[in-house]
Design goal:
Layout lengths: L4 E4 L2 E4 L1 E3 L4 E5 L8 E4 L2 H22 L17 H13 L4 H16 L1
Antiparallel strand pairs: 1-2, 3-4, 4-5
Pfam family, one: HicB
Protein name: Putative HicB family RNase H-like nuclease
InterPro entries: Ribbon_hlx_hlx (IPR010985), TTHA1013/TTHA0281-like (IPR035069), Uncharacterised_HicB (IPR008651)
């Protein structure tokens, strides 16, 4: 389920609402820069997001920069010790190390949701 995000040209934007200002706002996620957008209606928010993506792509092209944040393929996660122990046991039962087990779980979750 895609809730509180917008998608355009492979970019995602977070979506929030400010009751004080009566405005929707967000930022483009998964980039190294801060690019924000806002709108007073859902329609104007969508338009503002698309314009922000187009402007960002143009800027990246002008300066010769890759638009999306590069990733290394490794990250740390924090889970409870109990869940950690259960994951180790289950990975051993499936004849995998913990990294392989976590990667498989993520691959399955991504496949179900894409």
């Amino acid at each position: 389920m895609k809730k509180d995000i917008l998608e355009y040209k492979g970019f995602i934007g977070s979506v929030h609402f400010s009751a004080d200002d009566d405005v929707f706002f967000g930022k483009i996620e998964e980039i190294d820069d801060l690019v924000t957008f806002e709108g007073s209606s859902v329609k104007s928010l969508h338009k503002s997001f698309r314009e922000a993506v187009e402007d960002y792509l143009e800027l990246c092209k002008q300066v010769g920069k890759e638009p999306l944040r590069s990733v290394k393929g490794s990250f740390n996660i924090r889970i409870t010790p109990e869940l950690h122990r259960k994951a180790i046991r289950l990975s051993k039962q499936q004849r995998m190390n913990l990294n392989q087990f976590v990667q498989k779980a993520i691959e399955q979750a991504v496949a179900r949701n894409c």
